[in-house]
Amino acid sequence: MIPAKEEIQRVKPEVERYVRQRISEFKSLRENNLTTFDFRPFVNIEPYQADIFSEACFCILTANSSAVLGIKLQKEIGVDGFKSYPEEKLFEIIRKKGHRFAHQRAERIVKLREKENFLLKIAKEKDGKEAREKLVKEIYGYGYKEASHFLRNIGFNDVAIIDRHISRFLFEKGLVKPRKTITKKVYLECEQALEKIASDLELTQAELDLYIFYIKTGKVLK
């Protein structure tokens, strides 16, 4: 088995330009509250715009689902739709795309509208880990993974997204012990292991996540 750092170095030349592009899109989202995402050639979908609120909704949609489905829904619903569509319309769009938890996700998106100003304030925080604690406390349904996902996608570089792809990568490389569930303690243990890899490779946590996701899926998404 190829050690973690060596495997990341092996794939880096293949996808470095896509990783840099994605990081630039995230940075624009944080600085301007607007960005244009282009996921080609990994997903056959035309570029589209997203703002900070729609990105928080995207992170709700990808939980227990997939990034590809979340991307398709984010494009179809659009910046204005996340803020204005009735819950019933959101439900129908999400259901038709095949999401298993369409009703719950539509309900959460409508509820999140109450927190739009809070999300814009979070984007101005300096420390990602402190911002994550505030999100977990304030946003209904956000755990460490969802909060970290949102923060990374709006330009924070210092938090890790411990999903099934990342945890499996760490387990396979022998960097953490296999666990059946990812508790807060396990999450922070995994994040610490990733911080060491990122430091050794002179990458940010945000960049490292995109490389590992590519190793596990063959795609650079978000």
Indicate the CATH architecture of the largest domain: Orthogonal Bundle
In total, the number of domains comes to: 2
CATH superfamily of the largest domain: Hypothetical protein, domain 2
Low-confidence stretches: none
- The fold-level CATH name of the largest domain is Endonuclease III, domain 1
What class, by secondary structure content? Answer: mainly alpha
CATH level-1 class of the largest domain: Mainly Alpha
- Compute the number of strand runs: 2
Characterize the overall form.
Answer: globular
Task: State mean pLDDT (0 to 100 scale).
Answer: 95
In the sheet with the most strands, the strands line up as 1-2
Radius of gyration: 17 Å
Q: How many alpha or pi helices?
A: 11
GO molecular function: lyase activity
Protein name: 8-oxoguanine DNA glycosylase/AP lyase
Catalytic activity: 2'-deoxyribonucleotide-(2'-deoxyribose 5'-phosphate)-2'-deoxyribonucleotide-DNA = a 3'-end 2'-deoxyribonucleotide-(2,3-dehydro-2,3-deoxyribose 5'-phosphate)-DNA + a 5'-end 5'-phospho-2'-deoxyribonucleoside-DNA + H(+)
Organism: Persephonella atlantica
